Amino acid sequence: MFFLLLSFYFTIPAFAAGNSTSNSTHILLSCGTSETNIVDSNNLIWIGDGTTNYISKIASKTSQWPSQNPSVPTIPFNNARLFSSNYTYTFPLSPGRYFLRLYFYPANYSNLLASDSFMTVTVGPYTLLSNFSAWITVTALNYDYLIQEFSINVTSTTLNLTFAPSTKHPSAFAFINGIEIVSSPDIFSISTAYDADGNNKIFSYDEGMAFQTMYRLNVGGQSLARSQDSGNLYRSWDDDSNYIFGAAFGITFSNDPNVTIEYPPNIPQYIAPVSVYETARSMGPDPHINLQYNLTWILSVDAGFYYLLRFHFCEIQYPMTKPNQRVFFIYINNQTAQTQFDVIAYSGGIGKPVYRDYVVLTVGSGQMDMWVALYPDLSTKTSIMMQF
Ligand SMILES: *[C@@H]1O[C@H](CO)[C@@H](O)[C@H](O)[C@H]1NC(C)=O
Ligand SMILES: *[C@@H]1O[C@H](CO)[C@@H](O)[C@H](O)[C@H]1NC(C)=O
Ligand SMILES: *[C@@H]1O[C@H](CO)[C@@H](O)[C@H](O)[C@H]1NC(C)=O
Ligand SMILES: *[C@@H]1O[C@H](CO)[C@@H](O)[C@H](O)[C@H]1NC(C)=O
Ligand SMILES: *[C@@H]1O[C@H](CO)[C@@H](O)[C@H](O)[C@H]1NC(C)=O
Ligand SMILES: *[C@@H]1O[C@H](CO)[C@@H](O)[C@H](O)[C@H]1NC(C)=O
Ligand SMILES: *[C@@H]1O[C@H](CO)[C@@H](O)[C@H](O)[C@H]1NC(C)=O
Ligand SMILES: *[C@@H]1O[C@H](CO)[C@@H](O)[C@H](O)[C@H]1NC(C)=O
Ligand SMILES: *[C@@H]1O[C@H](CO)[C@@H](O)[C@H](O)[C@H]1NC(C)=O
Ligand SMILES: *[C@@H]1O[C@H](CO)[C@@H](O)[C@H](O)[C@H]1NC(C)=O
């Protein structure tokens, strides 16, 4: 029996609205409005882009959403800025890493059809979204709205964020409902990421690398709202159960009452909130059954990109206190990314979080399923020492 906690990423203050200190920024921009002091359901304060200097001199239209959809939060989705030509927002920022979140609610704004929106979104030299249709994406996923999250490294004192309507599609337009920028510590290259082929080769980060978040899952626990995140990063964490393959859900559990989560000095609390480490999913208690299946998550991704998978672990229940009690394999896309993973051996004890990063290159194009699986390693039961 074993468990994991997993989050999942893919690669590629001067004017701060809301709360900021001298070196931390949190901009919450509601696009297409000149209102100020817009308070959302998380008690975060948004500001209309029309009241700021971030917007471009180029003319753009604004629109309120045409129909009230009760499943869509009004902030920031109740208005949009619409672009028929390239349009750039310019943010003065201190150099460093930031989370950039783009909020899209594809609707028939003004006399435009939601299905005609195709856009490319760039920050400086980096293309974040290419020929992107929020409408096609929400339709495929059966969502109402989308929040696309990126981690970017700003190396100068301005960030230019450009929305470019497609020139290939007739009457294409671009639009945006909300833009959020949050300063972030370096949460990726501070740790070592290994190639997912099990050779323990270290993946080398490019300093300027931009990441797009594909999934961030709180395994064995509930979804966590932005306000429940650590490090003032306002990340949301989703319930993993929608991604489990087949009927083998294993069991979910939370920490024993006498186990408190204690972050070791090398794991800052902003890596993940306590709630992520306090819940887990494992296979059931019967080793004979467990040997017959892999506990598997299936995550739909775009082929042709590098993906970074960050696995968060923490032993949270007695009697799991010693090495060799729970040892398992980690498979990514049917390759053995890790043999003999032993949470206690890595973390140093019960209640101590640890995380591990793997990078996998997916080949081909179009959508594909990323397979993430765990399997118990019983061969170590008799061994006295394990080496890592
Ligand atoms: C802000 O600056 C202080 C002092 O330079 C530093 O200790 C702290 O980590 C910085 N905070 C952030 C969020 O970058
Ligand atoms: C800003 O900080 C104050 C005091 O710490 C807090 O009461 C308020 O909720 C914060 N506002 C936002 C938008 O985070
Ligand atoms: C937009 O209008 C078209 C044509 O009237 C309609 O078929 C479509 O369902 C509308 N789309 C949305 C998202 O409301
Ligand atoms: C953009 O995407 C649409 C819908 O997937 C596709 O039909 C079109 O060929 C794409 N255009 C370009 C230039 O890639
Ligand atoms: C952003 O755009 C402005 C105006 O075009 C330009 O002066 C500035 O150099 C750009 N900044 C970056 C980082 O590209
Ligand atoms: C608009 O942006 C697109 C995508 O970045 C670029 O290819 C195009 O040259 C830009 N058009 C103009 C007129 O600047
Ligand atoms: C951001 O880029 C700068 C300059 O290329 C580099 O020195 C720095 O290490 C990078 N920071 C992160 C967090 O990637
Ligand atoms: C914590 O509680 C468990 C039972 O839930 C017990 O087995 C264990 O010995 C306790 N540990 C400590 C340190 O009290
Ligand atoms: C992994 O193996 C399963 C069958 O065991 C197969 O259906 C799936 O396509 C494979 N996934 C990848 C990414 O190779
Ligand atoms: C678990 O997944 C691995 C990698 O895809 C595969 O080799 C193995 O046969 C699977 N085991 C079971 C019991 O399905």
TrEMBL record:
Using the UniProt record, give the first listed, main subcellular location.
membrane
- Which range is the signal sequence, renumbered to this chain? 1-16
Protein name per the record: Receptor-like kinase
The taxonomy runs: Eukaryota, Viridiplantae, Streptophyta, Embryophyta, Tracheophyta
Q: Which UniProt keywords apply?
A: ATP-binding, Glycoprotein, Kinase, Membrane, Nucleotide-binding, Receptor, Serine/threonine-protein kinase, Signal, Transferase, Transmembrane, Transmembrane helix
Species: Rhynchospora pubera
Show the GO MF annotations: ATP binding; protein serine/threonine kinase activity; transmembrane receptor protein tyrosine kinase activity
PANTHER family reported in the protein's UniProt record: OS03G0124300 PROTEIN-RELATED, OS04G0586500 PROTEIN
Q: In what way does this protein cross or attach to the membrane? A: Single-pass type I membrane protein
